[in-house]
Amino acid sequence: MAKKLLLDKAHVPGIRSYEVYRKEGGYRSVEKAFRLTPAEIVEEVKLSGLRGRGGAGFPTGMKWSFLAKPEGVPRYLVCNADESEPGTFKDRYLMEFIPHLLIEGMIVASFALGSNVSYIYIRGEYAWIADILENAIDEAKQNGWVGKNILGTGFNFELYVQRGAGAYICGEETALIESLEGKRGNPRIKPPFPAVKGLWDCPTVVNNVETLAAVVPIINEGGEAYAKIGVGKSTGTKLISACGNINKPGIYEIDMTISVEDFIFSDEYCGGIPNGKRLKACIPGGSSVPILPANLLLTTAKGEKRMMNYESLSDGGFATGSMMGSGGFIVLDEDQCIVRNTMTLARFYHHESCGQCSPCREGTGWMERILKKIESGKGEMKDIDLLWDIQRKIEGNTICPLGDAAAWPVAAAIRHFRDEFEWHVQHPDKCLTENFGLRHYADPIHVAVTA
Amino acid sequence: MVDEIKTFKVTIDNITIDVPVGTTVLNAARQIGGDVAPPAMCYYSKLQGSGGKCRTCLVEVAAGSTADPRPMPKLVASCRTTVMDGMVVKNITSEKVKDARAGVVEFLLLNHPLDCPICDQAGECHLQDLGYEHGKEGTRYEFPRRTFEKEDIGPYIQLHMTRCILCYRCTYVADQLTDKRVHGILDRGEHAEISTYISKAVDNEFSGNMIDVCPVGALTDKTFRFKNRVWFTKPVDAHRTCDTPGCCGNTTLWLRGEEVFRVTARKDEWGEVKSYDGKPGWICNTCRFDKKKTSDWTIEGVTKVNRHSVISQGKYEGLVMPKETVQEVMGGRAPKLLMNIHDESEVNDPKIQLSEINGPAHAENFKN
Q1: Which of A246, A277, A322, B156 has the fewest CB atoms within 10 Å, i.e. the most exposed one?
Q2: pLDDT at B26
Q3: Residue A404 φ then ψ, to 5°
Q4: Structural Rg of chain A based on CA atoms
Q5: What is the pTM for the complete model shown?
Q6: Cis ω for the linkage preceding B144 (within 30 of 0)
Q7: Residue A81 β-bridge partners
Q8: Mean pLDDT score of chain A, rounded to an integer?
Q9: Contacts of A13 (CB under 8 A, 6+ apart)
């Protein structure tokens, strides 16, 4: 059983309340942090090798050290709880069941960054969780963890929960800041980066819920001890939201040393695929990351076992690899249609594009229409090449990563499942009633032997 | 002693110039001029915060600076990227840029109605120019184009949402020129639209400048609507003493004969409003919509129009008719008239004015 740092107390009855949380050792990290200087805390986080858990995987300590610190200008910490990536629901679990863990992490992080007012921007659809968080903040305030002069250290700290209005784009950090300021949630053009000019033009750090929660065990156990868990540059533990065609969907905390195969088939985790079906494909890190067929998912192109960590999942680049992303692990069995799945994702990105820059505004809708055409048996061969060309012209040419996120799933689906697309074109009637099935997607990959 | 202005050296398409620190790549390229300047559909130098949205001005940065000569991984929006010392930029010399730009043009035209024949902007439309210079000859889009419900935004300005490319320029005008913005972007993605909330009329002395900044025919002048084509009218520079604070009074009148068809602000070579003493020459709605007589204005002379523009067609001073060469070729003999068509047929008799015929002309109309 892998070591658990975030969810070890998640099943203690009443952990949502302050009394139980405190009795179980909660808020220890704040006491410890106040004995350190802010710079020492940042150093500890750097040492831990913690990488942003929101999707991009940028080293958190590095991000914190980039924060500009001009005299007389307030700095802000914003928690990105706008968890909208299809397939990802780990932050929801953390906030719903152990809200104090996030608050504790935010107090420590705010102290380290010198933020006296911090915000939790939560997606509007999580309305009941916003209430849970606000209750927890009230409890923390009553017990002197939030407010003026915390624990007599002279550090003043206020924490607010802001509800979003239901837009995926507001999970992009600059769009989130715009929305937090009360404006339309359009991403800003970077540079300047939020670390220099963020919320109300002040230096701002935006971190994911899980990242901030992970600060608690880092301070408690020390950065070095945290870095020992995991492998290589994938340190600590990661929450995976497993869903799709598996026996036991849910949130799993892994230490990034297990293989993808074990994760899907072992009883400790997903428990295999229901109804005796075979594995066809998987999107390992939330809807934006490239989909992989079963063979490339379980072994890399080099023939090595693929592991559940940042490096191994991205091994082979986009040609034969994928990404850790936000940890939204979506498993597809042999009865699933890749064309339909890709169309669903394209529809999502079309619906969620903010409409600010041209390639994403126009391109996402175009891709969805073409995919719909292929899925309904009206596609032509040239449509597949056209799709490829459209995604290529969106990727990298937009203001924010939503354009890339819309392009990657389409690109990966065509790259790995082109024959399924072609089958749809060639069998316009059959594709409406039948599925392409597993075919060769789980066949072992021939690895060239180097002399 | 004069303070030396600090400058950076930047190389764009193999041409090196010195520009003041803080200049954007686009403005540096405009200083070089010609084809090196990337097209810009949303950036407007006189509107703070504009740019970055249309992605037509994407360029490749082959070297970030002398200090850090690494290339930038992605194409960058030149209108929002400031130059660094020793930066090397590729615009028309980069295949990547050309490819991406052709893509952006295709995206911009995807849902554009292409109703140029009935659009008042035709002839001075930036999207037409962009499509002509950087686009492909056909579209690969085969689905119905997006349409919007028509909306009335007041007596002076016509909004054609179907033609809009969402450059956001008009919202910046409303923010920066008028006291209160009453229009903005509603909805999102493909369905995002410029609108006034509950059709509230845009009513402000400077609202007309939205027409001038609109790169396409989405916002047009209602007083000029369907009256004429821009290439039939003759632009002249004119001015009047205007009492409206903030109005520069310098305009371009678009004439046909003595009749003033339209009044606009004066534009520079990039299609932007000209500056006077460093201040943008915005004009008020009184000048634009109410002063439609030549007697209201002091006319300075013909507006200089780029000779490549359709507006410059055949109506300029210094126009020289080509020399008649027939006599020279025939050794001084006058050409011999073999047959006068009007002796043989009464159709198209020059004595009959076609414009006086009610409806299409028939042979009957020419019977004496």
Answers
A1: A277
A2: 96
A3: -65, -45
A4: 23
A5: 0.89
A6: no
A7: A122
A8: 94
A9: A20
Torsion of the alpha carbons at B270, B276, B279 and B280, rounded to the nearest 10: -40
Decide if B57 contacts B92 (C-beta within 8 A).
Answer: no
Measure CB to CB from residue B58 to each of A353, A355, A397 and give the nearest one: A397
What pLDDT sits at residue A67? 94
Buried b (16+ CB within 10 A) or exposed e, B60-92: bbbbebeeeeeeeeebbbbbbbbbbebbbbbbb
Residue A309 CA, distance from chain mean position: 13
Residue A66, CB-side half-sphere exposure with 13 Å CA sphere: 16
CA B209 to chain centroid: 13
B7-106 domain in CATH 3.30.460.80?
A: no
A338-433 CATH fold: de novo design (two linked rop proteins) (1.20.1440)
A167 contacts in B (CB within 8 Å)? 188
Q: pLDDT per residue over B115-168, tens digit each?
A: 999 999 999 999 999 999 998 888 899 999 999 988 888 889 999 999 999 999
Structural element, H or E, at residue A298: helix A294-298
Q: What percent of chain A has pLDDT above 90?
A: 94
Q: Do A169 and B80 touch (CB under 8 A)?
A: no
Write down the domain spans for chain B. Answer: 7-106, 142-221, 230-312, 336-366
- Start-to-end CA distance of chain A, whole Å, equals 40
CB-neighbour burial class of residue A349 (10 A; exposed 0-12, middle 13-18, buried 19+): buried
Mutate to test the interface with B, among A361, A378, A394 (most CBs of B within 10 A): A361
Task: Please answer yes or no on whether B188 and A167 come within 8 Å at the CB atom.
Answer: yes
Domain segments of chain A: what residues? 18-225, 237-333, 338-433
Distance between the two ends of chain B, CA-based, in angstroms? 87
Cβ-Cβ contacts under 8 Å between A and B: the total is 88
Question: Chain B neighbours among A 144-173 (CB < 8 Å)?
Answer: 167, 169
CATH of domain B142-221: 3.30.70.20
Alpha carbons A188 and A399: distance in angstroms, whole number: 8
Task: Give the model confidence (pLDDT) of A111-137 as tens digits.
Answer: 999 999 999 999 999 999 999 999 999
Distance from CA of A384 to the nearest CA of B (A): 13
Nearest to A95 by CA among A22, A161, A19: A161
**pLDDT score at A1:** 53
Burial category of B312 from C-beta neighbours within 10 Å (exposed 0-12, middle 13-18, buried 19 and up): middle
